[in-house]
Amino acid sequence: MKGNYKEVEAKKYLGQHFLKDENVCKSIANTVDDFESVSKVVEVGPGMGAITKYLIKKEHPFSVIEVDGESITYLRENYPELDVVDFNFLKLDLGTLNDNNPFSLIGNFPYFISAQILTKIFDNRSLVSDVVGMFQKEVVEKVMAKPGKKNYGIISVLLQAFYDMEYLFTVDPKSFDPPPNVQSGVIKMTRNSVIELPIEIGTFKQVVKLGFNQRRKTLRNSLKSILPDEIRDEEIFSKRPEQLEVQEFIEIGIMIEKHRD
Question: How far apart are CA 68 and CA 10, in angstroms?
Answer without folding.
Answer: 10
